[in-house]
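During the second year of the project, the team shifted from modelling isolated chains to modelling whole assemblies. The rationale, set out in the original proposal, was that interfaces cannot be judged from single-chain predictions alone. As a representative example for this report, we include one of the complexes processed in the last quarter. Its constituent sequences, exactly as entered into the pipeline, are reproduced here:
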Amino acid sequence: MAEHAGPGTRSAVVDTPPQREVDVVVVGAGPAGSAAALEVARAGHSVVLLERGPFPGSKNVYGGVVYGRVLDELVPRWWEQMPVQRWVTRRSTMIMTPTQALTVDFRTQAWGGPPYNGATAHRCDLDGWLAGLATEAGATLVPSTVATGLLRDASGAVVGVRTDRPDGDLTAKVVIACDGVNSFLAKEAGMFVGKPTGHVTLGVKETLRLPRNVIDERFGVTGQHGVDIEILGCTRGIPGGGFLYTNLDSVSVGVVVDPHGLAAKKVRPEELVAELKRHPAIEPLVRGGELLEYSAHLIPEGGYDTMPELVTDGFLVAGDAAAMCLAAGIWLEGVNFAIGAGMYAGRAAADALAAKDTSKSGLASYQRMVDESFVLGDHRKLRRVPGLVLGQRMQQEYPAVLCDLAQGLFQVDNPRPKPGLLKLIRRVLKWHGVKTRDVLSDALTGVRSFG
Amino acid sequence: MLVVAALTWPGPRTVVDQLTGSTRTEEGRPGASAAGLAALEHALRIGESLGGKVVAVTIGPSAAEEMLREAVAAGAGGALRVDADPTDDEAVARALLAAVAERHGTPDVVVFGDDSGDVPGFLAAITDTAQALGLLELTVEQGVLNGLRRLDKGRRERLAIPMPAVCSVEPVLRPRRAGLPAMLAARNTTIPVVKPVVPGWTVRAGTIRAYRPRARILPIPAADQARDRIVALTNAVSAGGSATVVTPPDAAAAADLLLDYLSRHGYLGDTT
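Output from the structure prediction step:
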């Protein structure tokens, strides 16, 4: 098994001071880190929130929808405060080939009013708002500061972090690593030992400015209602998918792909985005957009089986750092899992501090809380889905099969009579060299996974 | 010795769509610019060399306090946010001066980034102090402020700058990195806010109207024909015209000549 990438340093061993400088250090002011810091601060403990960017959200990228229901536990009537671009009232799944597109489109006005469902947002606004809640509650936010390693005592328990600032050691009773995908701290703490590697995808995104009225007309929405389109079959067979969603006066379009597939096919990710923007089903939606931003980020899409250990002595892992990103076909979620995990990590840390036991057993309530909640419940239930969705047939063959099947259904070949559905399915499967047995096998896996 | 690092808060900026010509307003990136950070670093070094107090100052909203806290963490002895909404660079200079004077007294050295527009120039003029703008280097040697400035064709100009002085620097110096304990301490620092009373415009603009010279009553020239009377009145066909060549010895004498001419011809009215 390949080793996880990580820093070549070992943790610094320090003499544990009798008095730690703070109760909790949270590394990373993303959704997980801010939620954790908020819970710790509300419990009355001192907490420092370290952020490597100059402000929260400056380093973060996401490609879809924020589902804020989990915020009910943290911020009552959060929808009145959260910086939202648009509330998603149309949710589409598009399956495409270079010349075809089959879309399943769902719309409900119920998601356009309280208590809402999902929203698009700019991460700098969203993360700044969450971090602001934490600082209002008493957390100390320290930006432009990178946690470069862990501090341990002689017994190996984590007792703080080392940062890249002069005199940068900060001792704490609990360290919560929310330092994102490719978490150096979690790796340094040994949380990934024995876990499979290579389960990250690369997301690339363009944000294009369009007038608000143009977006409303093209996407068939009004007011602050918005659209999220998830796309399959737009990546030249490289495992992954695409997305297009509306902001208030811009749209974001991009792809999420397996970096190994990119390397094997010698394709650059921006070529895939350009190709997606030229597709006949997408081009009318993004035509004339002025490029505002191009961004790229790794996404931990490996699912439940690739998650690290979550708890050790004085140390918790949450959010992307713990691979808590759900990429399960029709469900593509991450921010809500990060907020939930961060919230539970903060609560567990506060409970452990109250009980004066920040050892692994003292912090074990975190594992229990995420186990019993949607955070690990959904991942556990859908653990087989990433393999299914990113598999060869789903990526390379099924999009064409489904598009040809739809074309065969809707094409009128008079004077020939319409073909029967089963006959059409058999014919299309044969065209694409897909065995019925494989289809049934994948369907069974799907039923088991989604069931 | 009071050294002031004047940091510019990036306010909203106007963006023009190059295709449609439409304009929109975008918020600037929060935090000090590279030139502002260089100004802070220069101010800190001057303060260390001359044993003075360094104060970081900005005009901006409460969001600008974050930038000032980082300046305090980096070593500034104080910070000041000026709550004002000046309309031009002169008003900015007056607001800064009033706020600093109210809290800390008269500054000996004020360092700006070179993205501060005409504010340093106005400040130097208002305070009647030396100005050295667009500096590459600003150092203290044996208690004397020295600057290095670019000239055309790659040349450099080295300046000995008398104090008090107003300087601006290019962003060629990387700011020091604040230590973690200082950062943590600065997070809870309360930034004082001053709302200075700044005099309004020093130049008052009146209503715009066409220029109408003051009427003068002249005796009627002695001539039979109307044309001859007009020629006599306007001196239109005289060979030498009305040009007068003067060679004043200096600018003050030139100004006197001009005023005398205008007065003689009735443009200034009764100045007695």
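Chain B has seven helices and eleven strands. Residues 210-272 of chain B form one domain.
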